[in-house]
Structures are given as structure tokens and as C-alpha cells.
């Protein structure tokens, strides 16, 4: 037998050997759990297209947060669903808006949790777009003023991190300037820097009740065919003051995540989006895949591609599996 080949299997010989040489490790510290907060009382409504994910009202929110703490999850990303929507999304920046109330409640009752506020208008506008509409188009600069107001109101309510997701040009610069002038220079910005116009967002729009009432978001979110544009977007956000860079979606964009990681020296966040979650859930419920193994492999691939942090609806399940 030839002795010229390499014996790679030596380092795969047992569970302990594989653990010893493992290059990429997933922990609960990596996880951010997204949650949808609604107005009303005693609401805990499962999202039909996202089994295991719920819209919750404030009276059920503390129980949800305590569960996260028990599981070892340290961070939560908040999305709000107001009862009333209007053309300019005024509930997004109202001091008594649903996200602002949720932030105050969490900071009072579960202060150890890191609270991240999604900063956008699409859940709050009657047309479902992320900014102000004139002549059927989203107005960039006019919308920025409302995003700044939203970010400041979220910081005032106790957000630890502002996460703008609107993809307007200049959104990080304007929000950074607004936060600094309002006395919140210490609040970091987790920018949705690389956000593609993806078909994987469908279940999220059910959960957040934010489906556009006309057209689509392709004039502000990115074309899935583009790679260099992702690096330009990320560079702009770094220049404007972003402290974290999000790549969204994650699974179909691992190549982009690796390039962002190699190029920029800030924490990179993978957003494991709703469509990615729902596909696995549907297959698991039909007995077609081993959900635990599929999810852990999927999230590990994101870390291997460069993610430091992962936003995922699987967070609770992953925390339970990792503690076994």
C-alpha cells in the first residue's frame, strides 16, 4: 500500500478527538432572539407560517423574556405591531409606541437582557413601505428624518442597540448624528448594512404584518445578483459610524458574509431569516429532516463563514440543544 497519502482520519477518530480539533463552535452567547410585540392584552398568537414563533402582548412579554434568560440567551431584537397605521408610520416614533413600551418594561423587569430595537417604518405605515411615499416612490431624505426620530425615541425608552433596517442612503450617518446630538453617543448602531430584496422574507411579513400594499422594496433593498454592491454598502455604513454589520439573509449569502468579515474589523451579524426558518420547520414537521442536526449545521455554517453573532428564530431550540 502506498505511504504517500495523508491520514486525515486520525483527527476524526472519536467524539472527543473531533471536539478537540473543532475549529468553529456555536454557543448561546452567539444568539439574538427576534420577538414580535403587539398591542392588546393576553395575546400569544402563533404565526401560521412560522410554527413556534408568536406575536405577544406586553402582559405576556416578561414571561417570554424570563424564558430567554433561563435558556442563557442574552439578547433580544424587538419588532412592533401597532393597532393603528398611517402614511408616515407615526407609531414607530411615538413615545408610547408598542416597541417603546416593551423596551421600558424589559429594562424594568429583566434588565440583564440586551435590547436591540429594529428601526424601520414598514410595520407602522399603512402602505407597508419603509419610508414616506410620494408619487408611488419612497422618498429617501424625507424618510431619514422619521428614522432618526424613531431611533432617538427607542434610545430614550431604553434600547441598548439601535438596528436600522430601512436601507435608505445615509441612514447610519443621520441616525448616528441624531443619537449623538440627543445625548446617546454611547448607543451603538447595528446596521442592516447588506440587506437583499429576498424572497426569504415572506413569513416575516406575516409575523410583522408588513407586506407592501403596492410594488416591492427593490428600489432600496439590494439585488441578490450583486456582490460588489454589498461591499460598497458595508463600507458606507462603516464610514458613517456603524458598530455592527448585518448580512441578511444569511444562508444563501454565506459568500458575502465571508467577504464582509475579511474586509471589515467590526462584529458581523448573520440574520437567519424567516423563510430559512420556515423551510426547516415545515420539513421537520413532515418528518423529512432531523431538525436539530439541520439547524445546528446551518448555524455553524454561518459562523464558519464569518458571523460573530446570529439573529435566529431557532434560538430557544438551539439553546436547549446546546445544553444537553
UniProtKB/TrEMBL annotation:
Residues the record lists as binding Zn(2+): 120, 122, 130
Annotated Mg(2+) binding sites: 233
Pathway annotation from the record: Porphyrin-containing compound metabolism; protoporphyrin-IX biosynthesis; coproporphyrinogen-III from 5-aminolevulinate: step 1/4
The keyword Plastid belongs to this UniProt entry's keyword annotation: no
Cofactor(s) the protein needs: Zn(2+)
Binding positions for 5-aminolevulinate 1 per the UniProt entry: 205, 217
EC class name: lyase
Keywords: Heme biosynthesis, Lyase, Magnesium, Metal-binding, Porphyrin biosynthesis, Zinc
Role, per record: Catalyzes an early step in the biosynthesis of tetrapyrroles. Binds two molecules of 5-aminolevulinate per subunit, each at a distinct site, and catalyzes their condensation to form porphobilinogen.
Name of protein: Delta-aminolevulinic acid dehydratase
Amino acid at each position: 500500500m502506498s505511504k504517500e497519502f495523508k491520514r486525515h482520519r486520525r483527527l476524526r477518530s472519536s467524539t472527543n478527538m473531533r471536539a478537540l480539533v473543532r475549529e468553529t463552535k456555536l454557543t448561546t452567547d452567539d444568539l439574538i432572539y427576534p420577538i414580535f410585540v403587539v398591542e392588546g392584552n393576553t395575546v400569544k398568537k402563533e404565526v401560521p407560517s412560522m410554527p413556534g414563533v408568536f406575536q405577544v402582548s406586553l402582559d405576556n412579554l416578561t414571561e417570554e423574556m424570563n424564558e430567554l434568560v433561563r435558556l442563557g440567551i442574552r439578547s433580544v431584537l424587538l419588532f412592533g405591531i401597532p393597532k393603528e397605521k398611517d402614511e408616515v408610520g407615526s407609531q414607530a416614533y411615538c413615545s408610547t409606541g408598542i416597541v417603546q413600551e416593551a423596551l421600558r418594561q424589559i429594562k424594568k423587569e429583566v434588565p440583564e437582557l440586551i435590547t436591540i430595537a429594529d428601526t424601520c417604518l414598514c410595520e407602522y405605515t399603512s402602505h407597508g413601505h419603509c419610508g414616506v411615499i410620494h408619487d408611488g416612490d419612497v422618498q429617501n431624505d424625507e424618510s431619514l428624518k422619521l428614522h432618526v426620530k424613531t431611533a432617538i425615541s427607542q434610545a430614550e425608552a431604553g434600547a441598548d442597540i439601535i438596528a436600522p433596517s430601512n436601507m435608505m442612503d445615509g441612514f447610519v450617518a443621520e441616525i448616528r448624528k441624531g443619537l449623538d446630538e440627543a445625548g446617546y453617543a454611547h448607543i451603538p448602531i447595528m446596521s442592516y448594512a447588506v440587506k437583499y430584496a429576498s424572497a426569504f422574507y415572506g413569513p416575516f411579513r406575516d409575523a410583522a404584518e408588513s407586506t407592501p400594499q403596492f410594488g416591492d422594496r427593490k428600489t432600496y433593498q439590494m439585488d441578490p445578483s450583486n456582490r460588489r454592491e454589498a461591499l460598497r454598502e458595508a463600507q458606507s455604513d462603516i464610514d458613517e459610524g456603524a458598530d455592527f454589520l448585518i448580512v441578511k439573509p444569511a444562508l444563501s449569502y454565506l459568500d458575502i458574509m465571508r467577504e464582509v468579515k475579511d474586509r471589515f474589523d467590526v462584529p458581523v451579524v448573520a440574520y437567519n431569516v424567516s423563510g430559512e426558518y420556515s423551510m426547516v420547520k415545515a420539513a421537520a414537521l413532515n418528518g423529512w429532516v432531523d431538525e436539530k442536526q439541520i439547524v445546528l449545521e446551518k448555524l455553524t455554517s454561518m459562523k464558519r463563514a464569518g458571523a460573530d453573532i446570529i439573529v435566529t428564530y431557532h434560538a430557544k431550540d438551539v439553546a436547549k440543544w446546546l445544553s444537553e
